[in-house]
Amino acid sequence: MLLENKYKKIYYQIINNALSESRNKKDFYYERHHILPKSMGGSDDKSNLVLLTAREHYVCHKLLTKFTVGDDKRKMFCAFWAFNRKSKNQQRFALNSRDYEYARIFISKIFSQERKGVAVGKELTPEHKKKLSTALKGKKKSEETKNRMKESWKLRPPRSQKHCMALSEANKGRVHTKATREKMSSSKKGINPVHTQISWECPYCGKVGVGISNYNRWHNNNCKDKQNA
User: Fold this and answer.
1) Does 47 fall in a domain?
2) Domain-located, residue 139
3) How far apart are the first and last CA of the chain?
4) Which residue from 73, 132, 178, 191 has the fewest beta carbons nearer than 10 Å?
5) Separation of alpha carbons 4 and 168, rounded Å
6) Domains held by the chain: number
7) CA separation (Å) from 196 to 177, 190, 211?
8) What is the pLDDT of residue 87?
9) pLDDT tens for residues 64-115?
């Protein structure tokens, strides 16, 4: 359902103006826009496509949030929020501070309502797992991504004693597959050194070592508790 208001009129004025011009991507940077968004039933037919400048595209997606209702409004906010994601292949406008707040408040409110009563850590269905597996198959992380992950891990705050106890209880009675046991063995031997070669220094006892697991197990809060005892 679309509301009949000034925003809808402005939206179609921009669309009709673009359609009246013989626009060509070879002459200028344009972005292809679905007049009736695909998420609202629009097709990929030429009659439903128009070339817009980056600014027009940005404005049109903001206008769409103002004359849609219900679930369509939610979809349009998600599409508008996508303009906040930069891409090397698209010269899009980043959301300014007002538009960022405008979209963020709505999206936060909707997502909060949708997630009420949803269990955290809910087990995935076999179909969902299969889809994830297919989507990730063959994908390899770049060296840049791996380095970012390593740096992020170094900055990760130490686990609390309560967290460690919870992990211990969750893993009790768990049986690892043969493949998992082989990976764990390789990691311990240094063949696949992900967390085993991270250097650390305990801020409480001053000792230094290698391997974040050793730090969390023997130092960290253990040393803190000893000092406070």
Assistant:
1) yes
2) no
3) 66
4) 178
5) 58
6) 2
7) 21, 7, 4
8) 58
9) 999 999 889 989 998 888 887 765 555 556 677 788 888 888 877 777 666 5
Domain edge (last residue) among 114, 133, 164: 114
- Is the confidence at residue 149, as pLDDT, over 90? no
Residues 215 and 225 sit within 8 Å (Cβ to Cβ): no
Residues 110 and 202 in one domain: no
Joined together, the tokens standing for residue 214 give 């050793």
Instruction: Decide the pairing of beta strands 49-52 and 31-34.
Output: antiparallel
Tell me which of 74, 96, 114 is where a domain ends. Answer: 114
The answer for residues whose C-beta is within 8 angstroms of residue 3's C-beta and 6 or more apart is: 67, 68, 69
The 3-class secondary structure across the chain, one letter per residue, is: CECCCHHHHHHHHHHHHHHHCCCCCCCCCCEEEECCCHHHCCCCCHHHEEEECHHHHHHHHHHHCCCECHHHHHHHHHHHHHHHCCECCECCCCCCHHHHHHHHHHHHHHHHHHHCCCCCCCCCCHHHHHHHHHHHCCCCCCHHHHHHHHHHHHCCCCCCHHHHHHHHHHHCCCCCCHHHHHHHHHHHHCCCCCCCCCEEECCCCCCEEECHHHHHHHCCHHHHHHHHC
**Nearest alpha-carbon partner for 34 in 13, 20, 7, 52:** 52
**Residue 123 lies inside a defined structural domain of this protein:** no
Q: Is residue 150 part of a domain?
A: no
Q: In one letter, which amino acid is 214?
A: N
- Following CA atoms 96, 100, 101, 102 in sequence, which dihedral angle do they give, to the nearest 10 degrees? 100
pTM over 0.85: no
